[in-house]
Structures are given as C-alpha cells and as structure tokens.
Design brief:
The protein has 2 domains: 2-51, no CATH class; 75-185, Lysozyme. The chain has 9 helices and no strands. The protein is 53% helix and 0% strand. It has helices spanning 2-14, 28-34, 39-42, 46-51, 79-95, 101-110, 134-147, 152-167, 172-182. The chain is mainly α. It is globular and about 35 Å long.
C-alpha cells in the first residue's frame, strides 16, 4: 500500500509544465520520498491518489445562444451570392446539408465572395486552397461538412476551429453566427 501511495504522490509533485530538476521546487514530500520514509505518504487522502490517475473530464460541447445582431442578414445584400445560390443549393442537397449553409459560410468568410481568395468563398483551409470554380469549391466544402458526420452546429465549429478547438470553446460564436445568417438564405 505504501508503495502505491508513493507513486501517486510522486505523480502529483511532477504535474505541471516540465522543468529541469534544478528549477523544481523541493517540497517536503519529495525530500521524504528521497529518504525512503514512506510514513508521510500513508496519511495522504485516497481521493488525492485517485485523482492523480484520472484525466479531467472534457467539457460538453453545446451551442451557445444565437446572437440577435446577425439574425437579420438578407441575401439581397450579397449580389454575387444571389447569382451563385442555385449552385450552392445543389451542392447542399447532394450532401444532405441545410439549405443556405454554404451561402452563410461565404458571408462570414469572404463577405459573400467580395473578398474571396479566387473561387474560395468559404475560407477553406485558411485560403490555402484555390478552387477552379465556385461549383468545385461548393462541392468540396459541402463534402467536408457532411463528412464530419455530426450535427450542423458541431460541423461548423469543427470547420472553423477543429474538433479539439471546438471542445476548448473556440468556434462556438462562429457556428452561432453562420446558423443565424443561414436563415436569410433559405
């Protein structure tokens, strides 16, 4: 029993950023561990020992409330998008995405195509990819979003911040804005 507690106590003192031994603090527990006096570790609470072996739970990913400031976005404010809507709607339908999703992403990523990286209206790969056409870009972005295999809000969050970024709280506001904007393109 004393040896198991000793290992847990050593894990507890080693937590945090890795530092060279010369920079680590020397608490009493480390000094006692070096002298092989296990009596100090037997008094540690069991909960402390168990906590050292379990990672903290991941926070749940839930959509935040939809901001009302962007709910009134109108398709007529984006003439380039209005012309491309039939192409975007067709790509969404082929991949089972909600109508208006690709247009809403384009609003936030390139002001509806006005400030696009060539035919990449969606900021795909942080504009590291230039599509040959709007049709080709819509197809790839729709395939990417559908390929995540999750609900629309989570797919948007992952598209913007990646799965780990989304779990950390990044991309939530983006997903909310895009979903609110999408209503203007239905």
């Amino acid at each position: 029993m004393a040896r198991a507690v000793l290992c847990a106590a050593i894990v507890l003192t080693a937590c945090g950023p890795a530092r060279p031994p010369s920079e680590r603090p020397s608490p009493t527990i480390e000094t006692q561990a070096n002298s092989k006096d296990f009596r100090a570790f037997e008094s540690l609470p069991v909960a402390v020992v168990e906590y050292a072996h379990r990672p903290p739970p991941a926070p749940p990913v839930t959509p935040s409330p939809v901001p009302t400031a962007v709910a009134g976005v109108r398709a007529s404010s984006y003439p380039l998008l209005v012309e491309a809507l039939p192409v975007l709607y067709a790509a969404e339908a082929r991949h089972g995405l909600p109508r208006g999703l690709l247009a809403a992403i384009a609003v936030w990523e390139s002001s509806g195509g006005r400030h696009a990286c060539g035919a990449n209206w969606w900021g795909y790969a942080s504009c590291g990819v230039e599509f040959a056409s709007i049709e080709g870009g819509a197809e790839i972005v729709a395939r990417t979003l559908a390929g995540y295999g999750v609900d629309t809000w989570t797919a948007l969050c992952w598209y913007n911040a990646g799965p780990s970024g989304c779990r950390a709280g990044l991309g939530h506001a983006y997903a909310d804005r895009v979903l609110a904007t999408m209503e203007g393109f239905r």
